[in-house]
């Protein structure tokens, strides 16, 4: 299991939904029965249902949120090696699939 650091915005969100009986070992987003969320159940019942209520958003797979996160992290100045660590990947894969031709090139001032 990989740990993911939380910035201030994410910390505020998590504190807002935190239960009174805070358990640091508890799941942040448990299933209704308090267990791990089954991906297929999540995708078919929650993800698809929510996207259907958003008429301006076409269907996309939940996995595409990973691509969005990685792209935004790179665009906001995180180094590929750090993004790779957060995503559980290698810097080489980040460069190959996400950072390849996305950045605007400019000549630095000397």
Task: Please explain how this structure is put together.
The chain has 110 residues and is mainly α. The chain has a domain at 59-102. Helix content is 48%, strand content 0%. The chain contains five helices and no strands. It has helices at residues 8-17, 39-52, 64-75, 80-87, 91-99. Helix 3 (64-75) runs antiparallel to helix 4 and helix 4 (80-87) crosses helix 5 (91-99). The radius of gyration is 18 Å and the shape is extended. The termini are far apart. The model has no long low-confidence stretch (mean pLDDT 85).
Number of helices: 5
Quick one: how many beta strands?
0
Question: Portion of residues in helices?
Answer: 40-55%
Query: Averaging pLDDT over every residue, what do you get?
Result: 85
Overall 3D form: extended
Write down the secondary-structure element order.
HHHHH
Strand content: under 5%
Uncertain runs are: none
* Distance between the first and last residues' Cα: 45 Å
* Radius of gyration of CA atoms, rounded to a whole number: 18 Å
Structural class of the helices, strands and pairings? mainly alpha
**Largest sheet properties:** none
């Amino acid at each position: 299991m990989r740990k993911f650091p939380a910035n201030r915005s994410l910390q505020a969100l998590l504190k807002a939904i935190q239960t009174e009986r805070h358990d640091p070992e508890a799941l942040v987003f448990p299933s209704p029965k308090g267990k791990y969320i089954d991906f297929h159940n999540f995708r078919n019942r929650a993800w698809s249902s929510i996207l259907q209520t958003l008429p301006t958003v076409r269907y996309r797979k939940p996995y595409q949120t990973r691509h969005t996160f990685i792209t935004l992290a790179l665009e906001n100045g995180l180094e590929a090696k750090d993004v790779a660590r957060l995503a559980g990947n290698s810097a080489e894969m980040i460069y190959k699939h996400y950072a390849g031709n996305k950045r605007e090139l400019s000549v630095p001032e000397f």
